[in-house]
UniProtKB/TrEMBL annotation:
GO terms for biological process: organic phosphonate transport; transmembrane transport. GO terms for cellular component: ATP-binding cassette (ABC) transporter complex. The lineage of its organism: Bacteria, Pseudomonadati, Pseudomonadota, Alphaproteobacteria, Hyphomicrobiales. Belongs to the phosphate/phosphite/phosphonate binding protein family. Pfam families: Phosphonate-bd. This is Phosphonate ABC transporter substrate-binding protein. Residues 1-23 form the signal peptide. CDD domains: PBP2_PhnD_like. It comes from the Bacteria. Keywords: Signal.
């Protein structure tokens, strides 16, 4: 047993040493892409980052790792196999509650109205006859992903105040759509009576708002907002962070952060494309763990981490 423990300690030490060496002499910068949107679209939208970033960071290459769901990226960041990613606030909270030193939030989006928040939005098919939240009583509600802030955490914690009871009691059934885009398509196809996704809340619902999943799907021609009705909108949610692996050297983090901060001016098209939010936004602003404390607290209380 002692021998096994010693070998285990050596193995862990070797992994830590390897991680430190990688952080100091990075050759490949690995970016995780959360699931829920067509993989080909995600890879195409981030190609400009793949092309530009190696020269900025002084690395040989940038690799993208699209996951099938949110947790794939979360586990990659926790395991140190990813260097950066854009997350929702609840996804970051999950990492923080598991290991607060695993990643560092550095930036978040600024909406066109200057806010740093967005909304969970419940939508239904317009031709379903469902026009209000009250009409959803006893109906089937879809969520985007169990690690989504707007697609799960905020609805299950905020809806009870508006429906007067728990989500479980109010709706006949709930389920997950496999990410925001897939969830909205599931509502469109009648698999759910309504579903929760996200939007900036700025501009017109009929256009998918100025940014968010609905706007992204409209811009891609996947949906027409004339087919949907908004049933419910949450309180304002903190925009999700871009995070980096904390063990990466400070110089690389600083270069990556500066590159992203300048991107709206240096390549506005790339700035708009390489984001899960879609639509128009002003730019980035700096954030830290404290910015997400309300979401961390909510996740801890609701699902324990």
């Amino acid at each position: 047993m002692l021998k096994k423990a010693l070998l285990g300690a050596i193995a862990i030490g070797a992994m830590l040493a390897g991680s430190m060496a990688r952080a100091e002499n990075l050759e490949t910068f690995r970016i995780g892409l959360i699931g829920g949107e067509n993989e080909a679209d995600r890879l195409r939208n981030y190609q400009c980052i793949v092309d530009q970033l190696p020269k900025v960071l002084g690395v040989k290459e940038v690799k993208l790792f699209p996951a099938t769901d949110y947790d794939g990226v979360i586990q990659g960041l926790l395991g140190g196999t990813l260097d950066a990613a854009e997350l929702g606030a609840s996804g970051y909270a999950k990492i923080y509650l598991t290991n607060p030193k695993a990643v560092e939030p550095i930036l978040t989006d600024i909406q066109t109205d200057g806010s740093t928040g967005y909304y969970s939005i419940m939508v239904a098919r317009k031709d379903s006859g469902i026009k209000t939240l009250a009409d959803m009583k006893g109906k089937k509600l879809g969520f985007a992903d169990p690690d989504s802030t707007s697609g799960y955490l905020v609805p299950v914690t905020s809806l009870p105040k508006d429906i007067g009871t728990s989500v479980k009691e109010y709706f006949s059934e709930t389920g997950f759509g496999g990410g925001h885009e897939n969830l909205v398509l599931a509502v469109k196809d009648g698999k759910f009576d309504a579903g929760t996704t996200f939007g900036s809340g700025v501009g017109k619902f009929d256009e998918g708002y100025s940014a968010g999943n609905l706007r992204k799907m409209v811009d891609k021609g996947v949906i027409d907002m004339k087919d949907f009705v908004e049933l419910w909108k949450s309180p304002l949610i903190p925009n999700g962070p871009i995070v980096v692996r904390s063990s990466m050297n400070a110089d690389t983090i600083a270069k990556y952060k500066e590159y992203l901060m300048n991107l709206p001016k240096t390549d506005h098209a790339c700035f708009l494309a390489a984001s899960s939010n879609g639509g128009d936004r002003k730019g980035f602003t700096e954030v830290n763990a404290q910015f997400y404390q309300p979401i961390i607290d909510a996740r801890k209380a609701q699902i324990g981490g």
